[in-house]
Design goal:
alpha+beta, Beta-galactosidase, Chain A, domain 5, Glycosyltransferase, elongated, seven-stranded antiparallel β-sheet, nine-stranded antiparallel β-sheet
Amino acid sequence: MNRKAFACISMAAPLALGAAMQTPQAPETIDSLHGSLVVDAVAGGCLIRLVDDGQSRLISPPEGLWSIATAWEDEQPTAWIHGGPTSIQRNGDWLVLSGELQTPEGVWTIRDAYRGAGNGVEGRRRWTWNGEHAARNITLSVRWQTPGPGARVLLPGICYDGNPSGVATGAGVVAAFRGEPGEAAVFEEHRYPMPFACLEWDRPAGGVTGAALHTLPSPTPFGRRPDQWWSLGVLGRAEATELVLLSGPTAINGQWGVVKANQGRVLPYPGASLDVPPGGVIEKTFFLESSGDADRGSAFRTPLRTCIDRWKPFSTDGLPQAREIIRAKAAFAKSRWHESARGSGFRMYPTQDLYVMGWCGQAAAPGFAFLELADRLGEPAWIDRCQKSLDLLATAPVDGGGFPLVYDPAQGSWSGRDPVSQGQAMENFARAILAGREDRRVRTDNWEAFLLRACDAHATRILGEEWRPRSTAEGFLVSPLCKAFAIFGEERFRDAAIKAAEHYASRHLDMTEPYWGGTLDAQCEDKEGAWAAFQAFFAVYEMTGEPGWLERASHAMDVVLTYTCVWDIPLPAGRLADHGFKTRGWTVVSVQNQHLDVYGVLYTPEIYRMGELLGRDDLKRLAIVMYRSCGQMIDPFGSQGEQLQHTNFAQSGDMDRIETMRGGYSEGWTVFWITAHFLNAAADFEQRGIDILSDDPALAPGGS
């Protein structure tokens, strides 16, 4: 592990202050809802602390509030110089700390301004270079430390308590961080769907607390790299864990000067320092927040809610209407319908005649979707297609391990199985049965017989003494088991659902093993694994009405939401910029696959419903934005690609050049789930009585 940059930060001697601190005897304090900033005069300077409930949550570094690196070596900042303010004054709501930092090349004037800003304390740091010549290879920083070492970290969409499962499975490159001295996890701000870093640690007196550093993301002026942004992350130190903002440098798994650019590798990200001209001014806005007392694995929930409130990603201006999206997706679904002498269904790929249940294929999803939507779309023919497709899929043979998922109509054969896809297919059947029982135009007997066999097989497995699932993937079995209990009245289905849900609650709620393994192509911490648990806990709540399950669902939902973009990330020239693409409401895939996708539309009805149950309008508004925003990039044929590159990461195209990745778009991978999830979610909204189509008279109830 390369520790030079860390050593330079932690071991450099403090800069002697040139003047006495002009502070009153009593500490200065800035108050907010989640912590107060306290400035104490100490020998030769000041100590600044974020205090909550009488305890320090974050502390300015002992070597000084301000740190500037004045050299660059081995792709990392070096030659750090530290110092602090020499004056302090009040100006309205602001507490202003000012001073100078002497370097061999000249003097920097630095000013910090702090004020209470709702839940946290807002800080604005301003650097001015006063030298006669350009200051070259400079790195600026914002640094705050915990009271002790070994804090657990959550970086939204990037790192969850060190990504233990992704590390253990070796699923490509993921960010490992355990808080050990010398560890570094620092990433470009535009990689963050929610721009904050959160730390959690055990209190000496018992219990858990935490703190977060929020940032107002921005490119760095005077950067030596094209499209250089500030970076945000954490450093491990012997005496503390450090939250840090840097003016460009990045690090992952102890290696500086690289970024995670592909599923399985990092690529060089060299020269991310600054060349600041004489008179150059740089400013950075950040926010400090205490998480207060929390359960283990829950400290992130306070800054998560603050982040949503701060960015307010609720505007639907410039986003497609729901009616436009549904019409486009319904039209595209027609292009995937395939008639065959050996069975008809929805193809996963545009040319290959395979019907694939679950995950990428979602061949069973239109059954439920069009039973709910066909009349409003004016497409009665879809009812017959629902019948044909589900009747065929219901012929999948079931054994003790479940059922195969891939049907080849050319061969009349079945193959392939995995728990994620089986759970999703069973959910599709259960929803179609519940809808079909209310619609005399379809016969549900075959569907019910298949679901009964599938639930019997999986309930038997789950209720067995040896059942121990590898990951959160089997959480997708819980909701269909709950629905099957309602359909068939089989108590063992209810018992299996509750046992599985309790298992996942015991494994994941404290986040020592974050939700993971919900995708097929990356066995790591991912939003799909969190969604599996969210769906499971929510389904058990709806089945039992027990409040504890609603709280568990809320926790899993909050983890799901950490993968959701709450801000519109400015994009460079490229396919996304061509369309004026807005990132708010889109979701990052996982800690391994760091592109955006539309998957989040699938669970927007559950987020909306949670908003109703918890009395939170922000969740209801966010759910609608997520659905509509993900309708961007639909082409005239109703098609969308899966991979949208908001950051320096790619899975297709030019995989070797960082400069070509951000703003790119891979539209060739058009598996059917990209269409099915929109239709499924729209039908779910419809079934729950949430009318997202009412802006179109033709789609309104009773419309033509």
